[in-house]
Amino acid sequence: MVLVQKNVAHPWMCDILGHMTTRHYVAMFDDAAYHMLYTVFGWTGSSDAENKIAWADVQHVIDYKAEVSVGDILEIDAKLTKIGNKSITILYEMKNLGNNEVAATLKCICVLFDLHTRKSVEISTELRELASKYLIETTNDK
Predict the structure, then answer these.
(1) What residue segments make up the domains of the chain, in order of their start?
(2) Which of 92, 97, 109, 127 could be bridged to 59 by S-S, CB 3.0 to 4.6 A?
(3) Has this prediction a pTM greater than 0.85?
(4) Of the candidates 108, 118, 111, which has an alpha carbon nearest to the alpha carbon of residue 59?
């Protein structure tokens, strides 16, 4: 797995019960995704401004496993679990460092997307080769 995010559950990220709200889990996973795409492909939001090819999330499955409270220190690791013709699947794992528990996981399917045609496109051989260096095949994505 690749370390892609470090964060803190600040009070303003938490609800009236003192637990981090869903919107901030999603934001942390979203930030982690940019770091993962950069690690695997060297991709940034402005990488391909000319051709307008980008990665677009098409499915998120989040599993909340343990509460995150104000002040908890979090890390998100990621692993690429599948390379398809037009998509990749990445599994993210958010860990609470204070108690060494997995707080949440996110399974994300991303498609390579042409911003001109507004359609998914085939993953090139070059991108496939870059991704294959990070592929960790699993029998169970959890």
Answers:
(1) 2-132
(2) 109
(3) yes
(4) 108
Q: Which two tokens stand for residue 95?
A: 């860990």
> Shortest CA distance to 60 belongs to which of 97, 27, 14?
27
The domain covering 2-132 belongs, at the CATH homologous superfamily level, to: Hotdog Thioesterase (3.10.129.10)
| Sign of the dihedral through C-alpha 51, 127, 37, 26 | positive
In 3D space, the residue among 81, 92, 85 whose CA is nearest the CA of residue 132 turns out to be 81
Q: Quote the CA–CA distance of 47 and 38 in Å, as a whole number.
A: 10
Nearest to 9 by CA among 70, 85, 94, 60: 70
Query: Which tens digit of pLDDT belongs to each residue from 73-105?
Result: 999 999 999 999 999 999 999 999 999 999 999
